[in-house]
Design goal:
The structure holds 2 protein chains of 2 kinds. Chain A is α/β, with parallel strands linked by helices. Chain A contains 16 helices and 12 strands. Classes of the chains: A alpha/beta, B alpha/beta.
Chain lengths: 373, 512
C-alpha cells in the first residue's frame, strides 16, 4: 500500500486524538488507508469491529470513545498539521515506507506512524543496543552507563534509549561525546516537548547527529501511559537491551518484558546487593539475564566479539598512597575518617587521595570517598 | 537669653554634631521645638519638662516664650540623645545656671521623668564625634555609659547620673561627680573551645584556615554533624580587635542598640547568627526613619554565620555581595545616605540535600536532580565567595567517646596569630586579600602542584577564579605549617583542593 500526503496528514491527526494509543490506532486503521479512517472518524461512521472493541474495552468503551474522537476531529485540519510537522523538519514515517526500520516490520505491536527528527535511516542502524535504566541512578550506575555508552559508540554500535534522566541520559551523553555510531533516542511525547526539560541540549544533539523518534505528533505532553509504549519501540529497535540499574518495578522492567517478547537478549549490570537501584537488575541476573560486567559482554551479545582494549593489570599503589587506600577500605568513608585512621593529617592525605582519584583507585562524591578497585 | 549647647545625633553608625540653641524671652508662655526633630526627639520636650519639675525647678516655658532650634536644620535629628542638651540649654537660657559654666562642654543622654540621665542607642558614635570636635573640652555622658564613652573618648568624659547632679555641678553648688575607677576589660563570655570538636580533623583544619587566612567558609552536612558548633568556635580563633577596629565595632553595636561588653569596647570578634527569616534591611542595615546598622555590620571584624543558607530568600543573600566585595554597605534614602562598615568573615551552612541526610552513595532518598536543585538555591556568585567548602559528616561515635584530647582554642589561636603576622608582612590583613600580583609573588605552585592544578582545571573542577582562591588557601595552609618558602608544595595545594569540595550536582554550572 502506498502512502500519499493525504494519508500522512490523516495519520498525524489520528495519532493526536485524545486517548488514542498504539493498539487503538492500529485497530482503528485496520486495513484501510489512514485518509479513509480519518474520513470515517470525522463522519462518525466508524464500525466497531472485533479488534477495535478489544482495544477499547476499558471504560468509557468503544462507542463513547468514537463519539469523543468525532467531536475532537472537528476543527482539526490534517494538512495544516502536516505542514507544521514539515516546517519543524519532522519526517513522518509510515509502515511500508522505504525508510521504515526493518526491525519494526515483523513487530508484534508495531507503531502505525513514527515522527523522526534527524536522519530516519539511523533507526535501521545495526547493531544497536539499548542502554536503559532508572532515573534515580546512583553514581555507580551513571558511571557504568557512561562507560557503556562511550564504548558502544566507539565500537560502531548505535546506542538506543528513552533520553530520560539518570541512566538513559548518562549513556547517551557519553555516546555523543565518543562521536562513534549515531545515537537513537525514542521519546514518549511530542518531539518539541522536551522532557525532562534539562535534556534540551541532549535532544538537540541526538537529532543533529542521529535520530530522535516518537510515535506522537508535535505538542503531545508526556503522560504516564505513554512511556511503556515508548519502551516497546526501544526494545524493538535494539538488537540487545542492557539494564544498567533498576528497582524491581518500573519502566526499565517493562522494557525487559518487551525485549523478551521480541527475543532480544537482555543483559543486566550487577550491582551492590545493598543498593535499591540495583535490586531489579540483580533479580534479572538471578532470573537468567546475561551479566554485563564490561563492554565485551555487551558486544558479544550483538555478535561483535571482544574488541582489543585490554586494561593492563595494575599493581596496587604502595608507600603512603597504599596506606591511604588501606585506611579507606572497601566501605565508603569520609575524609575525616581517612585522616584519623592514617594519622597523616589533611595535608599528608589530600595529595595521595588526589593521585589515587586520578588513577581511578577511588572516587569521591558528596563528601564520601569510595574505593573503586 | 540665648544659650548654645553642643550635642550630637546619630546617622547610620556615625555621630553628627548638633548645636542646640535655646532662646527664652518675654512673650506668651509657650515652647517651640524646630530643626527637624523626629518623634522620639520631639517627645524629649515632655521628658525635659517633667524632669525639671522632679528636680524642683520652675519650667521657664510656663512664664516665658522659649524657642529651641536644633541646628543645622537641614537633616533629621533622631532619638532621645538630645534630651540632656535641651535641658541644659533651657536651664542656661532660663538663667538657672550661668552661661560660662557650659563653655567647652558637650552633652549627650536621655532624660527620665524622675530626672535620671540614661544611655540610649548610638551614644558611642555620638561621643566619638563630639570628642573630636574643636572647642569641645569634655563630653557629659550618662554615668551608666561611662565605660564605653571613656573607651572611645579617653579622659574627657564627665559621667553624671541625674539632672540635679548635673545642674549642681554646672552651678558650682557641688563638684563634678568622680569618674568611676576604670574597669578592666574582661572577656565575660566563656567562648566555646575548639577542644570540643573531635573526630572531625578536616573541619577543624578548615576552621583554622578560615581564621588564619580570612577565607569565607561553607559547611555542607546533615543535621547534627556539628556545623553550628564549628562556626561558634571560629571567633575564638580570630585575633582580638585592635583599638581602631574595636572603636568601629563599638560604634556600630551602640548604634544598633546592642549591649556593649564590660570594659566599654567590643574587643572580641563578634559572632552574629541571624535567622533565615531576616529581612534585607535587618541584614545589611536600613529602616524607614532611623538607618540602623544591620546584622552584617554588627558582625564587622567578626563572624557572620548564616545557618541553613538555602532557606534565606535569594534577595537577602544577594544583598551580601557588595559588603563581601568592599567591606562596606551603602544605604541610600531620599533624604540621606550612610556608609556602614561591614568587613566580616562569612560562614554558611547548608544541608547537602532536601532530606538532609546526604551520606554515602545510594544511602539518601534524594535523586541527583533534587540534590542539584536544592544547592542551586544558593546563587553562583555568592557560592563563589566561599574559598573553603567542606563536607561535614557526623563524627564516629568512637572518636567522640575516646579519651584523646584535641588541641584547644588557645593553641590554635597562636598559630592563627603567627599566620596573620606573616600575612601582614605581605601588606595584607589576611591571605584571602592577596591579589594576582601578591599570589604570583607569594604563592607559586611547584612543578608537582602545578600539574595537579592543571588537571583540576582540565576536568572542570576548578575555574580561573577558583584557581586563585585555591592558591590563596594553599598559602594559608603553608603559613600555618610554618613553611616559609614562596613555593607551594603539592601537600598544601592538594589539601586546599580537598577543602574546596565540589558541590554535587552544581559543579558543572559553577565550574567551582
Amino acid at each position: 500500500m502506498t502512502v500519499d500526503d493525504d494519508d500522512r496528514a490523516a495519520v498525524i491527526a489520528l495519532s493526536g486524538l485524545p486517548g488514542i494509543g498504539p493498539s487503538r490506532l492500529r485497530a482503528l486503521l485496520g486495513n484501510r488507508s489512514s485518509s479513509a479512517a480519518w474520513a470515517d472518524v470525522c463522519g462518525g461512521r466508524v464500525e466497531v469491529d472485533e479488534a477495535l472493541a478489544a482495544a477499547c474495552r476499558q471504560p468509557p468503551g468503544p462507542a463513547a470513545l468514537l463519539e469523543r474522537w468525532t467531536t475532537a476531529a472537528r476543527g482539526v485540519d490534517p494538512h495544516e498539521l502536516r505542514h507544521r510537522h514539515r516546517a519543524a523538519g519532522v519526517h513522518i514515517l509510515c509502515p511500508g515506507d522505504e525508510g521504515w526500520p526493518s526491525s519494526l516490520v515483523d513487530d508484534p505491536d508495531p507503531p502505525s506512524v513514527l515522527f523522526v527528527l534527524g536522519d530516519p535511516a539511523t533507526l535501521g542502524h545495526s547493531p544497536a543496543v539499548a542502554v536503559v535504566g532508572t532515573r534515580q541512578a546512583t553514581r555507580y550506575g551513571l558511571e557504568v552507563a557512561r562507560g557503556l555508552g562511550r564504548g558502544l559508540a566507539r565500537a560502531g554500535v548505535a546506542v538506543v534509549s528513552g533520553l530520560a534522566a539518570g541512566i538513559d541520559g548518562a549513556g547517551h551523553h557519553a555516546a555523543i561525546e565518543a562521536a562513534g555510531a549515531p545515537p537513537i533516542g525514542v521519546v514518549g511525547c511530542g518531539l518539541d516537548v522536551v522532557y525532562p526539560r534539562g535534556h534540551r541540549q541532549l535532544w538537540e544533539r541526538v537529532a543533529a547527529i542521529g535520530a530522535l523518534a516518537s510515535e506522537w505528533p508535535l505538542g503531545t505532553k508526556p503522560a504516564q501511559w505513554r512511556f511503556p509504549a515508548r519502551n516497546r519501540i526501544i526494545a524493538a529497535l535494539a538488537d540487545a537491551v542492557v539494564i544498567v540499574e533498576s528497582p524491581p518495578t518500573g519502566g526499565s522492567m517493562h522494557t525487559v518484558e518487551e525485549a523478551v517478547r521480541r527475543d532480544r537478549p537482555v543483559l543486566a549490570v550487577p550491582g551492590p546487593v545493598t543498593s535499591r537501584a540495583s535490586r531489579g537488575t540483580n533479580r534479572l541476573l538471578a532470573d537468567g539475564a546475561v551479566p554485563a560486567c564490561d563492554l565485551d559482554d555487551v558486544l558479544v551479545a550483538v555478535g561483535l566479539g571482544g574488541i582489543e582494549h585490554g586494561t593492563p593489570a595494575v599493581s596496587p599503589p604502595n608507600g603512603d598512597a597504599g596506606r591511604v587506600l588501606d585506611a579507606l577500605g572497601w566501605r565508603p568513608a569520609t575524609l575525616d575518617q581517612v585522616v584519623l585512621r592514617t594519622g597523616m593529617g589533611l595535608a599528608g592525605v589530600a595529595r595521595h587521595i588526589a593521585a589515587l582519584e586520578a588513577g581511578g583507585w577511588l572516587a569521591s562524591d558528596g563528601g564520601w570517598l569510595e574505593r573503586r578497585r | 537669653m540665648l544659650a548654645c549647647i553642643s550635642s550630637a545625633t546619630i546617622q547610620g553608625a556615625r555621630g553628627r554634631s548638633v548645636l542646640v540653641e535655646v532662646h527664652v524671652a518675654k512673650g506668651l508662655p509657650a515652647v517651640a521645638l524646630v530643626g527637624q526633630p523626629d518623634p522620639a526627639c520631639r517627645e524629649g520636650l515632655h521628658r525635659v519638662r517633667v524632669a525639671f519639675a522632679s528636680a524642683g525647678l520652675a519650667w521657664p516655658g510656663d512664664t516665658k516664650k522659649a524657642t529651641i532650634n536644633l541646628a543645622p536644620p537641614g537633616f533629621r535629628k533622631l532619638g532621645s540623645g538630645l534630651d540632656v542638651a535641651i535641658a541644659v540649654g533651657v536651664a542656661v537660657a532660663g538663667e538657672i545656671v550661668p552661661l560660662e559654666s557650659v563653655a567647652g562642654l558637650a552633652f549627650v543622654g536621655e532624660l527620665g521623668l524622675d530626672g535620671a540621665i540614661r544611655t540610649m542607642p548610638g551614644l558611642v558614635p555620638m561621643v566619638a564625634t563630639l570628642a573630636g570636635e574643636p572647642g569641645v573640652g569634655a563630653v557629659v555622658v550618662p554615668a551608666e555609659a561611662h565605660a564605653e564613652a571613656a573607651a572611645v573618648a579617653g579622659a574627657v568624659v564627665r559621667p553624671v547620673a541625674s539632672l540635679t547632679e548635673l545642674l549642681d555641678a554646672l552651678g558650682g553648688a557641688a563638684p563634678w561627680p568622680e569618674q568611676p575607677a576604670e574597669r578592666v576589660a574582661v572577656d565575660e563570655v566563656v567562648e566555646a573551645d575548639l577542644a570540643d570538636v573531635r573526630g572531625q580533623p578536616v573541619a577543624r583544619q578548615a576552621v583554622e584556615v578560615a581564621a588564619a587566612g580570612g577565607h569565607h567558609l561553607l559547611l555542607v552536612g546533615p543535621p547534627g554533624a556539628g556545623k553550628t558548633m564549628l562556626a561558634r568556635r571560629l571567633p575564638g580563633l580570630l585575633p582580638p580587635l585592635d583599638r581602631q577596629a574595636a572603636i568601629e565595632a563599638t560604634c556600630i553595636w551602640s548604634a544598633a542598640g546592642l549591649r556593649i561588653p564590660e570594659g566599654g569596647l567590643v574587643q572580641r570578634p563578634p559572632f552574629r547568627a541571624p535567622h533565615h527569616s531576616t529581612s534585607v534591611p535587618a541584614l545589611v542595615g536600613g529602616g524607614s526613619v532611623y538607618l540602623r546598622p544591620g546584622e552584617a555590620s554588627c558582625a564587622h571584624r567578626g563572624v557572620l554565620f548564616l545557618d541553613e543558607m538555602g532557606e534565606f530568600p535569594a534577595a537577602v543573600l544577594d544583598s551580601l555581595r557588595t559588603p563581601l566585595e568592599e567591606g562596606v554597605i551603602r544605604v541610600s534614602r531620599a533624604r540621606e545616605s550612610v556608609e556602614l562598615p561591614a568587613r566580616f568573615l562569612l560562614v554558611g551552612s547548608t544541608n547537602p540535600c532536601p532530606c538532609g541526610e546526604g551520606g554515602p552513595v545510594g544511602s539518601c532518598r534524594c535523586d541527583p536532580n533534587a540534590r542539584a536543585r536544592y544547592l542551586r538555591r544558593l546563587s553562583g556568585p555568592l557560592l563563589d565567595r566561599f574559598d573553603l567548602r567542606i563536607d561535614v559528616a557526623r563524627p564516629d561515635p568512637a572518636s567522640l567517646l575516646g579519651a584523646g584530647r584535641e588541641e584547644p582554642t588557645a593553641v590554635v589561636a597562636e598559630r592563627v596569630a603567627a599566620a596573620r603576622a606573616l600575612a601582614a608582612s605581605r601588606d595584607v590583613v589576611a591571605n584571602a586579600e592577596l591579589d594576582a600580583s601578591g599570589l604570583d609573588r607569594w604563592a607559586v605552585p611547584d612543578d608537582e602542584s602545578a600539574r595537579m592544578l592543571e588537571a583540576a582545571m582540565r576536568t572542570g573542577r576548578l575555574s580561573a577564579r577558583g584557581l586563585s582562591r585555591v592558591r590563596a588557601v594553599a598559602r594559608t595552609l603553608a603559613d600555618l605549617a610554618g613553611a616559609g618558602s614562596a613555593r607551594l608544595s603539592a601537600d598544601h595545594v592538594a589539601a586546599a583542593l580537598a577543602l574546596r569540595t565540589p558541590l554535587s550536582g552544581v559543579e558543572h554550572r559553577l565550574a567551582s
